[in-house]
Amino acid sequence: MFDFRFVPLCLALVAGAVTATAQEAQVAFGSANADPSLPVEVTSETLNVNQEDGSAEFLGNVVVIQGEMRLTAERVLVIYNEERSAIERMEATENVVLVSPPDAAEGDWAEYTIDSGVIVMKGNVLLTQGPSIISGDQMNANLTTGTATMTGRVKTILQQGNN
């Protein structure tokens, strides 16, 4: 006969496991508050400029640097504001990696809205914070506040002690 007094103990052991799964997680992201007014440096193999729609497409080993933030991808599309006087946003695709020390994230696609300092990453997002890893479908990172939200089947692996 099964002793039901052990059910709470079993549930406590399962709940205390090193891996946790949720639909949303609030996390810190980056150590320094980013300044969206800093210059944006972009390096790539190829640049295509479209005067009609006010965009620029960077292709091949693209590296975007703004202050401490570093974004790399195979393709980055830069969209300027209506006056074409400043960058409105950037869309990165293919092997997207975002580093805001000491944290790093990777995903399939990212959009960086310059004025707000917000980066949205989608598709197999993997956030590394020291020895801990968080994965999810999407990450919304606010570089000016140093915070992020992971959503969509969030999985966390928390390393404890010397592991």
Index terms:
163 residues; mainly beta; ten-stranded antiparallel beta sheet; 62% strand; elongated; disordered N terminus
How would you sum up this structure, described in words?
- The chain has 163 residues and is mainly beta.
- It contains one helix and ten strands, in the order αββββββββββ.
- The two termini are 39 Å apart.
Largest sheet: 10 strands, antiparallel
Output the helix-strand order: HEEEEEEEEEE
Quote the beta fraction.
over 45%
Question: Radius of gyration, rounded?
Answer: 20 Å
Mean pLDDT across residues: 83
Instruction: Report the uncertain regions.
Output: 1-20
Contiguous helical run count = 1
**DSSP strand tally:** 10
Q: What structural category arises from helix and sheet content?
A: mainly beta
Shape: elongated
Helix content: under 10%
* Amino-to-carboxy terminus distance: 39 Å
